[in-house]
Task: structure prediction
Amino acid sequence: MDNIRKLLRQQAIGQVTHRLVQELTTPVAPEVTLFVEQMLGPVRPLGVLFYGSGLRSGIDEDTLLDFYIIVRRQADWPRSVLACMANAVLPPNVEYYELQVAGRVMRAKVAILTLAQLHALTGFASLNTTVWARFSQPVRLVWHNDVQAEQAITHCIVRANVTAARWAALLGPRKASPVAFWNALYARTYRAELRVENGQRSSGLVEANLERYEHLLLPCWQAAGIQFDVQEDQVTPDFSDRQRHMAQQQWGLRARLGRPLNILRLIKAVYTFKGSASYAAWKVRRHSGIAITLSPFAHKHPLLAAPPVLWKLWRQGAFRQS
Result:
């Protein structure tokens, strides 16, 4: 019996991997590829993952692209020693890029992780829910260094989806449709993070990719070794009350840590966010319509330059309620 279960589990992992490889390798808009190539220049990380609203909704004038750059070592991405140390202790670091691509300005928020960090943060034991939750959603591997790097990153994406599906089974309803399990999971992960979006955002993620989520849950459960029952369009994972209670306690710890960890990352970003001044200027222009001209000093010392900029914005009415 154990050998049969092991075989079924291996088959399920192969099925999930096949589906996610198709997703990861689906072509993206050419300007996204051009942006990545220009951003990387001569640097050769292991891979670049593209996700977020730019992938889900397309690219317009104000779209902020979202990337994760995966490296083998912290030193493989050019930045200060302080930034490397901070990323090793409290990943990921975030950087902002604004590039001229195909005759238009494009912008991106870029996070950096080592492959070892990506592997750890997509596992079920991780206390940080952000990374596995993010990569259980649609993502594209828009650049990779070689076949080995592609396979290693793909393994982590499969791991993220299996982790997410396992938590969905443990925390979700006792019996429901596959979509309901995903919706319940993302509602939980949003509450565990410091998010500014409204409560409907988590369900919108699933609604935008219904077929994907409907067909991915059960193979992920099989890959995780979870037994379940299927009746028409309803599925029931086989867990005891004790297992569910223990999972709720484990999740409680993650929920309590989620917001403090994100706040610590925001504090860290004050000192490590490359391009923070340009990012702030873009956000101000986007939300208030007021353009800020940044001096070389402001680019180099954004914290010291902030008070006179804030004073100028106040005088121009940026903080007045409409």
